[in-house]
Amino acid sequence: MSNEQLNNARVLVEEGKYQEAINYYRNVMSSNEIIEDKSLIALCLSGLIRTYLYSDDLPSADQILLQLKDLNKNFEDNRIDQLYRFNHALLLKNGNRVRKIALAQEIFGEISNENIIFSDITIDSILNLCEMLINEYKETKNEEILKEINPILTRLSKISQEQKSFRVLAESYLLEAKFSLINFEMKKARYHFTRGQQIAEKYGFNRLAVRISDEHDKLLQNQTQWDQFCEDNESICDRIEDANLTSHIQGMLKRKSLDEPNLKPESPILLLIMGKSGISLYTKIFNKEWNVNEDLFSGFLSAFTSFSDEIFSDGLDRVNFRKFTILMTNIPPFTICYVYKGQTFIAQQTLAKFNKKIQASTVLWNILESSNKTGHIILPNSNSNLEELVNSTFSSH
């Protein structure tokens, strides 16, 4: 029961209801159920310290830390000891003395590499360490510091996966994507965006999935700008600000829900169903923005192979072609290619719905298989069932 109460208190903190959370922690500590369970008392004290820190009440946080320190002195317990050291580091980090900040960084580093006792303490130690290393780089401009961050982020992903903390895992991929942007590793960044979104969707973190997808879209839309940054050798500090790294880490530490971007339906441009040979068995043009001329279409088809390789071989989920975005899915022996303008998240749902309906319809599947075997192209409006499905799926929004 007490663990459930602790979770309730954490939720209140995440919602910014700090005074309610403080009351909740104190009520749990005074209950007969945990009066003899010193590790649970330590967890309550730890929760109180963080709550006071979030509400900018440093004196109260200091007082609670002294209680936790006494508890740690009187009982030999690895759990209590780690909680004390972690919270001590939090308060040192919030000071303005260089020596204290350095000690906090050292403690977070130690906890990050210890055997996991509380997974959230290990994860938060890694995040605090990352934030402090970024701030240290901003102060010193020593690029050796940045080299320390990559293995730390890799450990964060590994621990999140092992502990089945899938929200943290998805956010860690988003963090790795942003860090890859700083190093101008665009394909690596896009891979991490894709993986992060896939994990967020798989485990039901839809708001996070939307946010990651939107970040990925912005990268593609601003590709020219990032290329210019690379050519101009824009300072790493400026790139860190552009990627909002620090604010993202702080949001993860506070379990703060990400603001969900405003979603708008995409504008369908073109749908292709490609056969095994790479020939388009069915082509549907939705929008006059797609200039139907031989040069554009042949150029698109010639680029199709490289797009396909980029998506299927490199674990990506979208590519750009001129001012359009392209999604491709493989449902053997067919490849479905969807060209659109706008945000990707809803476009992905639209394409997934279409693929599901195609596979569920024996009639339509047989038509496509026959076309694939004979090489006969399915002309627009030649099959009412297929046209009705395409129009109802892609044109309804």
Quick description:
The protein is an alpha+beta fold and 397 residues long. It contains 19 helices and five strands.
Detailed description of the structure:
- Helix content is 68%, strand content 8%.
- By secondary structure, it is of the alpha+beta class.
- A 5-stranded antiparallel β-sheet has the order 2-1-5-4-3, sandwiched between helices.
- A hairpin with a 2-residue loop joins strand 4 (324-331) and strand 5.
- Helix 10 (166-182) packs antiparallel against helix 11 (186-202) and helix 10 packs antiparallel against helix 15 (245-253).
- It is elongated.
- The two termini are 48 Å apart.
Structural features:
8% strand, Serine Threonine Protein Phosphatase 5, Tetratricopeptide repeat, 5-stranded antiparallel β-sheet, Beta-Lactamase, 397 residues, alpha+beta
CATH secondary-structure class of the largest domain: Mainly Alpha
Q: Give the H and E element order.
A: HHHHHHHHHHHHHHHEEHEEEHHH
| Helical content (DSSP H or I, runs of 4+) | 55-70%
Task: Report the end-to-end length measured between terminal Cα atoms.
Answer: 48 Å
Helical segment tally?
Answer: 19
Q: How many domains, in number, for the residues?
A: 2
Shape: elongated
Strand order of the largest sheet: 2-1-5-4-3
Strand residue content: 5-15%
Task: Assign the structural class, choosing from mainly alpha, mainly beta, alpha/beta, alpha+beta, or little secondary structure.
Answer: alpha+beta
What is the CATH topology classification name of the largest domain?
Serine Threonine Protein Phosphatase 5, Tetratricopeptide repeat
Describe the sheet with the most strands: 5 strands, antiparallel
Query: If classified by CATH, what would the architecture of the largest domain be?
Result: Alpha Horseshoe
Q: Count of DSSP E strands?
A: 5
Overall mean confidence score, pLDDT:
87
What is the CATH superfamily of the largest domain?
A: Tetratricopeptide repeat domain
Low-confidence parts: none
